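so im writing up the methods section and need the NAC domain-containing protein record in one place, dumping it here so i stop losing it
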Amino acid sequence: KVLDGNFTGRAIAEVDLNKCEPWELPEKAKMGEKEWYFFSLRDRKYPTGLRTNRATEAGYWKATGKDREIYSSKTCSLVGMKKTLVFYRGRAPKGEKSNWVMHEYRLEGKFAYHYLSRTSKDEWVISRVFQKTGAGVAAASGGGKKGKAAVISLYSEVCSSP
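--- predicted struct ---
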């Protein structure tokens, strides 16, 4: 998708995450019952800035914790980053936390959008969206093995010694 914006995934739909509420996303997905994957462009908050707009009509996605590095299992070089976000209903700073979680995967290093297209501010990401149950966001952001398999073709597993 990064190399060809016209690429269409058979299993991953393209969605503008700022125009959809999280509870609308399952019906827009091409597959999945408890977690859904989407290609989306990061929407810039300001035309010349790098800050990402994460607001929807009903609320906003708030980043939790720090971004996690993803390394190639073959070369142990940095290939991507994973950001965990939680959806809040309402407006910051008084939004009400929901059980909707998003894992946003983006390319880094020599595969990052700014190395591939110097004229474009478009940055494609893959987002995994799901509703957490029980243990909370800490468990949801822990990564686990589930979910990584679905994006293994774009991002390799984390190296044990980078």
